[in-house]
Amino acid sequence: ARTLTFLGIESSCDDTAAAIVRHGDDGTQILASIVSGQTELHAAFGGVVPEIAARAHAEKLDLCVEQALEQAQLGLTDLDGIAVTAGPGLIGGVMSGVMCAKGIAAGTGLPLVGVNHLAGHALTPRLTDGMAFPYLMLLVSGGHCQFLIAHGSEEFTRLGGTIDDAPGEAFDKTAKLLALPQPGGPNVETEAEGGNPKAYAFPRPLLDRPGCDMSFSGLKTALLRTRDEVVAQHGGLPRAIRRDICASFQAAVTDVLVKKSRRALTEYMDLAPSAPGFAVAGGVAANRAIRAGLESVATEFGATFVAPPLRLCTDNAAMIAWAGLERFRLGHRDGMDLVARPRWPL
Ligand code: KG4
Ligand code: ZN
């Protein structure tokens, strides 16, 4: 195949990102990847404020693209196409990215390819490990939680997912309840290290229900009750007990993800894949207990397990460049009428 070099642009949530990916017969290279976060801008509001996010993306996008070209030591004329997240996400941010991409496409005459953000996550194991279709994917972050089978670059089946909170959200809320700093995930994980995972029996909802759907919102209520009981009894939250709570919480989340992965793998194996693969993406994939649990289920089924490096598991533009490149190879092109879509199921 002809070697292709793609610029990727991502601005669907609270990270502004630009990246350059090259793919040809001699392999795949991430020539540049710039991610500029907005955490400080939103910190005072306790969540992402869409208007602030959109304005910050509009201000940062050009600079991110410039930095990516500089890092790759390339000019716009060295590119073969521009890929941009066209949804789903916060509409103002997605529009900023689409407008930036259209501007570059109009100025250079380069082809434009709109990409689904979730497809970007779902195709990452191909960018990092060249994983072959069909493979099973678990997207698990602060905003997403779903099992997908990737049959092709544009063909996915959803096997199930959370019906309420995402696990990352549960980690963040747990941290808040236990007065640990944000982001909750890494802090709860560290605190869980010295704790007893069997100290508290936190709920594992939907576990004996068929299918791959999950629920994590009940954990919050159970945790709140436990915390209040401990505080009433001890007049505070002793460190050793907090460790036990964190360890027990993490065990509950891990248990649900592992058992539902077993279900999803069973459905996936019915497709008789010749080289079975199970991949995970999203910030929660950074958790060592969860990662280890998922890896051992993959091993049970004889499937190759891939957990991409964290910087490619969380929001980035390399995955968008890659997904655009795959779509382009299938003949997909978008025109100046490409629209930003707040909702866009895979
Ligand atoms: O993929 P991501 O950066 O952004 C989206 O939510 O889309 O994921 C961030 C989430 C946060 O909720 C964070 O607490 C969680 O991933 N996270 C973790 C860990 N590191 C990050 N959760 C559990 N254990 C971790 N080590
Ligand atoms: Zn994402």
TrEMBL record:
A GO molecular-function descriptor: tRNA N(6)-L-threonylcarbamoyladenine synthase activity
Domain (Gcp-like): give its ranges.
29-322
Q: Which residues form a coiled coil?
A: none
In terms of NCBIfam families, this protein maps to: gcp_kae1, T6A_TsaD_YgjD
Residues annotated for Fe cation binding in this entry: 117, 121, 315
Which cofactors must be present for this protein to function? Fe(2+)
Instruction: State the protein's name.
Output: tRNA N6-adenosine threonylcarbamoyltransferase
UniProt-annotated binding residues for substrate: 139-143, 172, 185, 189, 287
Its taxonomic path starts at: Bacteria, Pseudomonadati, Pseudomonadota, Alphaproteobacteria, Rhodobacterales
Alphabetical UniProt keywords: Acyltransferase, Cytoplasm, Iron, Metal-binding, Transferase, tRNA processing
Q: Which reaction does it catalyse?
A: L-threonylcarbamoyladenylate + adenosine(37) in tRNA = N(6)-L-threonylcarbamoyladenosine(37) in tRNA + AMP + H(+)
Which Enzyme Commission number(s) are on file for it? 2.3.1.234
Spell out the family assignment given in the record's similarity comment. Answer: Belongs to the KAE1 / TsaD family.
Compartmental location: Cytoplasm
Q: How is the cofactor bound?
A: Binds 1 Fe(2+) ion per subunit.
Name the encoding gene, please.
tsaD
